[in-house]
């Protein structure tokens, strides 16, 4: 049989378990749950059924075109319009519409901005491995150079520039050779095919 101590221990454990499990439910009273207030957005606002309808007008196509080169307007008058003007000056009644013809002469104008010698760039190196070229460009950009890559004929070219100052790029050639070990070439910048 069990000893008195074991019976008391089992009884105490049962009483504590009942107190822990049952008493909070009895003494809790009214349970309230805390929930956030959520405002729902209405699905579709209620509007009046009156909707405006608008007619879409087709645009007018103008058949006039601009000439290829700059033009100079030359105004010439026909004899009939000169006669009408002299009749207008004699009789100050109603004025008829004048039929002035505008003649245009196409004049050639030289290009004011000659971009052939305006900018320069340095072609530093051409590498087969594009990732190596991008690493070199990233390093040069960190050092403050305007470096770019250009893929051409299976090679990735490392280019510095363009810049309008040829002397500035010539000074950078020596600095770039010390940094990368490659001797760059100074080339003219072609905007349409850099």
TrEMBL record:
Q: What is this protein called?
A: SPOR domain-containing protein
Extract the ranges annotated as region (Disordered). 38-112
Q: The organism sits in which domain of life?
A: Bacteria
Alphabetical list of Pfam families matching this protein: SPOR
Q: What is the lineage of its organism?
A: Bacteria, Pseudomonadati, Pseudomonadota, Gammaproteobacteria, Vibrionales
Q: Where is the composition biased (Polar residues)?
A: 74-97
Q: Which PANTHER family does the UniProt record give?
A: CELL DIVISION PROTEIN DEDD (PTHR38687:SF1), CELL DIVISION PROTEIN DEDD-RELATED (PTHR38687)
Family annotation (InterPro entries): Cell_div_SPOR-domain, SPOR-like_dom, SPOR-like_sf
- The residues covered by the SPOR domain are 114-189
């Amino acid at each position: 049989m069990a000893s008195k101590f074991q019976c008391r221990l089992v009884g105490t454990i049962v009483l504590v378990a009942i107190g822990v499990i049952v008493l909070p439910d009895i003494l809790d009273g009214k349970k309230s749950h805390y929930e956030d207030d959520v405002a729902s957005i209405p699905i579709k606002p209620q509007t009046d059924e009156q909707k405006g309808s608008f007619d879409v007008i087709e645009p007018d196509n103008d058949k006039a075109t601009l000439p290829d080169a700059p033009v100079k307007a030359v105004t010439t008058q026909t004899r009939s319009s000169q006669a009408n003007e002299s009749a207008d000056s004699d009789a100050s009644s109603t004025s008829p519409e004048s039929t002035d013809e505008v003649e245009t002469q196409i004049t050639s104008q030289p290009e004011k901005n000659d971009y052939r010698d305006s900018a320069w760039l340095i072609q530093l190196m051409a590498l087969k491995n594009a990732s190596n070229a991008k690493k070199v460009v990233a390093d040069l950009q960190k050092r403050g150079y305007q470096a770019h890559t250009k893929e051409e004929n299976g090679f990735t070219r490392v280019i510095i520039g363009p810049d309008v100052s040829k002397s500035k790029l010539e000074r950078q050639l020596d600095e770039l050779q010390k940094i990368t070990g490659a001797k760059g070439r100074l080339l003219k910048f072609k905007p349409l095919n850099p």
